[in-house]
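User: Before I run my own analysis I want an independent prediction to cross-check against. Here's the chain; please return only the C-alpha cells and, at the end, one sentence I can use as a sanity check.
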Amino acid sequence: MFAVPTAQTQKSPIESYLHVLYALILRDIRTRFGASLWGYGVIVLWPCVHVFVLIAIYTFQKLPAPLGDERALFFATGAVPVLVFQYISREVMKSVMINRPLTYYPQVKMFDLIFSRILVEIVTGFLALLVVSSVLMAIGVNLIPAQPLTAVTGYLAAIILGIGVGTINVAIIGFFPGWLIGYALFSIILYISSGVMFLPSYMPEQIYYWMKFNPAMQLAEWVRSAYYPYANIQVDYLYVVMFGLTSASIGLFLIKHIVSKMQA
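Assistant: C-alpha cells:
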C-alpha cells in the first residue's frame, strides 16, 4: 500500500504526504465500514438513531420539553454536538490502536493516523447532522436558529473539543491501553451530565456550578442558546475552546516526546 517511489515517479513532499493521507483514509473506511457504501451508511445513521430514539421515548411518554414546544428540537440541539465530540474523541483513539503497525512504514507517522481519522469523523458527523436535519424538517420541525452564527460555532467547538480530548486519549493509551474501556465508561458519565435530556441551568446553583466544568455540557448549552436566546443560557465559550486547544497541545507533546520514546 505504501510503495517506495522510484526516480521516475518521484513526487514532491506535499504530494507524497497527500498520497499517504489518502491511503490511510481509504484503508480506515474500508476496514471499519466494509467495502460497500452500506457499511458506511450504518455508521452515519447510528448517531441519528440515537437522537431519534431519545425523541421517541419522550414523545410517547408525552413528556414536555424543558424549553419551547418542540421536543425533537430540544433534544437534537443538545445531543448532536455532544455526540460529535464523543465520536471524534473515541474514534481517534481506536484508530491509533488498530493502525499502530502502519507506523513501521517510514512514510507513516503517528500524527498521520490521528489526522486521517479526524477527517473521516468530521465528514461522518457532518453527514449525520444532515440526516437528522432532513428528517426533522420533513416532520415539520423548524431548524432555523435565531442566532445561526452561534449554532455554527457551537458545532465547530464540538469538533475542536473532540480533537483535543481524542489527542489526550491517544497519549493515555500509550501508557495504559486499558483506557479504551475506561473512556467508554467515562463517556457515559459525561453524556448523562451534559444536559442532553434536561436543562442544566434549572438545576440548583450548587450543582450547576460543578456541572459547568464539564465541557460537553457547555457544548449542549452553546448550541441550544442559538435556538432559545430568550432562555438566557450562560455559556463559557472561551473555556470550551481553550479546553480543546490545550488538550490537543498536551496530547501532541506527550505523543511526540514520551509515548514515541517508550515505543521505540
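Sanity check: The two ends are 23 Å apart (CA to CA).
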